[in-house]
Specification:
The complex is a heterodimer of chains A (168) and B (436). Chain A is α+β, with helices and mostly antiparallel strands and 168 residues long. Chain A contains 3 helices and 7 strands, in the order αβββββββαα. Chain A has a 5-stranded antiparallel sheet, with helices on both faces. The chains are: A alpha+beta (168), B alpha/beta (436).
Chain lengths: 168, 436
Amino acid sequence: MTKLTILEYPDERLRTMAQPIEAVDDALRATIDDMFETMYDASGVGLAATQVDVHRRLFIADCSEDQSEPLVFINPEITEKSGEFANEEGCLSFPGVYAKVERASNIKVQAQDRHGETFTLNAEGLLAICIQHEIDHLNGKLFVDYLSPLKRDRIRKKLEKEARQRAE
Amino acid sequence: MATPHSAGAGSRAAAAQALFMVLEQGRSLSQALPLVTSSLSGRDRALCQTLCYGVLRFLPQLNFVISHLLAKPLKKDLAILHSLLLVGTYQLIFLRTSDHAAISATVEAASLLQRSRQKGLINGVLRNVQRQREQLEAALASHDELQHNHPRWLADLIRSHYGPEQAEAIFSANNQQAPMWLRINEQRTDRAQYLARLAEADIGYHDESPLSSAIQLVQPVDVQRLPGFAEGMVSVQDLAAQHAAWLLNAAAGERVLDCCAAPGGKTAHILERQPDCTLIAVDSDATRLQRVHDNLQRLQLNAEVINGDAMQPDNWWNGEHFDRILLDAPCSATGVIRRHPDIKWLRRSQDIAVLAQLQADILDTMWSLLKPGGTLLYATCSILPAENSEQIAAFMKRHDDARQVAVAPTGSPDWQWLPGEHAGDGFYYAKLEKRT
């Protein structure tokens, strides 16, 4: 397994629309394994393929406290949404940035697993937030898009400054 | 998505709030939990419950650790943080979650409890628990009085009656997680058929059971996963409690009274054993009576359910005497501590005499409603003799028209189950017959 590089905002590649996956094969499973290593290493609960510069409709998640519930979502679709709640979110493409975002509190999602089998899942709480956050990535959308332009601009400047400092 | 700071904090904050309500405000855990978990996800709700049960089981040991690590006790207005420290310490010493997740979620919970300024304090104490874990565990193991995790008065009472060896077994059983027992509705299914349904649903069970109606599951499951639950094929009820309907043994055509019936588990079981009796179920708590209605409806059984005080039968009794009465008396609940660990800290030693007097009064009142030749089954979920064997001995002295009948299958005049015996709860039964 290889740890992959996570694209960071404002990298334009994060705005790419991901393409549907036609075949779930060994090559894809290798990417999935690399993504898990990358996500666990970064203490994340979810990672979209877009974030590691793979523009295919795939994301992974693990909202357990002990890395015991790895989930793979290929070609995910949200089929039902209900309830609303606002929660603090962070994103591995925005190191150190957290902001409150409003999401549906209960969702039903349909996707394929790492063997290409279709499944549906009812999610609530952190997992519901995570799934909505990751599917946004596959559509080139980022959690800061829900914030006011002023707040978004402030976050962009902060991250650009930090990137410059790291480069020096 | 990055792990939010608040991940897991909600369940820890809710657990601290529920524990505060129990320990500082004297509420029961079953009242407190729904008040604090309504906004949590199913997984967080389950974790919150695990944390509360665990803390209440091992409270003295956890308090020992915290007092060891705090320079001075927290001020009264910070009592909620003491509850939060209990939650954090329990995770580090008794639960196998990762230390990092446990500490960060517990520290973050202080913000949710509007105590952001004390996050440093919580973090400091919990880091010390983590660093000194081995020494702390050794210190806990060397204190004999800390091993049983019961209040002193109750430990003394249990020891004086049962002797040191059996007392240890009771303490240990009280601090273990209780198994889930099912009661199958033998009107609708039979044991072999239902066991097959469980196997089909991939729910593990133990083969042996002293009662054909009782099935012990290997792991507790959500009732909604039980085959035929909604259709009334099965209920959840402990093995010891399931003996009530068997011992009462109502016959067709009899008038039967279930006194202090809520939430109705035994009421339903009496009818499952004997659908052709006239059953009247009385309880003084209107809210809990709703659960009797719900249970009977789900199981498709009929009883006359009355909201009334057992001590005031004139308000609800039509004057027709009963063939059989089940009196499941209000009691200390010291037999079900493994299911309700809050009982250890909510009961006071002076409660026992008050309860014993109440039980004596209800017994006498119920006796007057019984036909000559009728049978009264007295039951408690207590293990204290004052509520059980001594209570019945005093009753026998007061009533010379009473005769104690052997309680099957032991053949002895009364039956004291201890918690953990046959994996059941602690329970007491005595059967009294009125001379003609």
